[in-house]
Amino acid sequence: MKHYIHLFSVISALLLLCLPLGSCSQTSGPITKTSFKLNTVVTITIYDSSDVSLLDHALELCDDYENLFSRTRETSELYQINQGEKTALSPETEELLNIALSYGRMSGGLFDPSIGPVSSLWDFHAETPRVPADSEIKEALPLINSDKIHISNHTIELENGMMLDLGAISKGYIADRIKEYLVEQGVKSAIIDLGGNVLCIGSRPDGTPFQIGIRQPFEDTSAAAAALSVTDRSVVTSGIYERCFTQDDVLYHHLLNPKTGYPCDNELASVTIVSDHSVDGDALSTCCFLMGTEQGMKLINSLTDVQAVFITREGDLLYSDGFPH
Length: 325
Hints:
Blueprint: E1 8-9, H1 13-16, E2 31-37, E3 40-46, H2 52-69, H3 77-81, E4 87-88, H4 91-106, H5 116-119, H6 134-140, E5 150-152, E6 155-157, H7 170-184, E7 189-194, E8 197-202, E9 210-215, E10 224-230, E11 234-239, E12 244-247, E13 250-253, E14 268-275, H8 278-291, H9 293-301, E15 307-312, E16 317-319
Antiparallel strand pairs: 1-9, 2-3, 3-7, 4-6, 5-6, 7-8, 8-11, 9-10, 11-14, 12-13, 14-15, 15-16
Helix pairs in contact: 2-7, 7-8, 8-9
């Protein structure tokens, strides 16, 4: 399950998100297109080209990758893998799964792509979400075990009852692939926003950085806790305040602890990662949230060219070494 919190560009992207769904600007200046993809609102904005076909193909890439990585779409590769049959892996799915497994090792097993048996019990998109029965969660927990994911000769076979869920990392991977495509087409100034996974290509046309806002947890989407100057980097947030519901006065959110099967209960409200690649920001924002303030910050400070800001439930902002603020 994944976290795709609404980061927004204070100067530009906020205005773009106000365009009607599926609209496209073809006037002078930036071109932009917004559509509902990957179960979220996706906005692509290009500042140095008037070629609208670039936007169209970028959005088509979302569909292509969803047909690989979706846990629920019956035509997807991941859905077929979860049926338990030996399945040939596409290069993209094998690459993404190996990245996910590496972050599982880095987080001591807290980031686990085999969390599907538990994450499938929690439907945060339901009209009336509910807490799964404790018996359901206890029955599913033993099926979470990345050590039992067997990949050999580009094929995979899951043990009976296991289920993969790559939602905690797939949008970052897709954003990176969209950036790769646009750069190959000569784009040097753009913003890719996959439901809050913000990835910048270069800087604004005048050479100044993009300004990206980090949302204040539980406040209106226009309330920024901090603003970042970003050039050619990714900004991704995991938080407890978007996909959530309250039952019996208890807040339940989508950041699930694979050790307990329940939402992670700690002092954090959100974790924002600034990195070169969105797939890393996607994974690390979840890893650090699940690891908690002390261990999560220790991890970030051990990495090169990665920064983070943690926001606590009390509203305190905690910055990693070298954070650009």
